[in-house]
Amino acid sequence: MPSYSTLDRLYFLSCYQDSDLSIKVFADYNGIHDGSLRRWIKGFLQEGVLGVRRSATNRRYSIDLKVAAVVDYQDNGLSRQEVLHKYNIRSNSQLTDWVIRYNSGKLLAPKGAGKRVRKMGRKVSYDEKIKIVQWALDHDSDYQVTAKEFDVSYNRVYDWVRKYQATGNWEVLKDRRGKKRVPKVTL
Known about the structure:
- The chain is built from nine helices and no strands.
- It is mostly helical.
- It has three domains: 46 residues; 41 residues; 48 residues.
- Helix 4 packs across helix 6.
- The longest helix is centred in the first third of the chain and has 14 residues.
- It starts with 5 loop residues before the first helix and ends in a 20-residue tail after the last helix.
């Protein structure tokens, strides 16, 4: 989807005003999404040139404003357009998102709340990998207990044990990242 500068938007608005075409036909003829043209017209009518200008950043709204907008829309009977105009909200979909989040109890929580941050695994030496795999095999391949015992992830223990079991060679546990491959010599 192309991005239009403020001058481009003003040019299209001027051309649309001089034409006798409907918004849909004018937008299709000029390769513009008709929703964008409607948004530009609305912005120009509400705020003049400032309502059409292309913002370098997204507009941020406070939690208080979001809650007030949702309450006015749901409880106080204001129409969607009245709420958008009263609180200077640019997008209809923005209000819809707030209503959904408010009704599910997630509007007051920060948007990133509840996400698990992946913890980086600790560095494990080759000798320690051998020790971990040997311990896991001695304890009936109980990967969960082994992972807790050595403070590494279950997946890492599982991978190391499987690699060793597949080859029977401890060399597969070596970390070869960043090393040149040694070509196999066949006689």
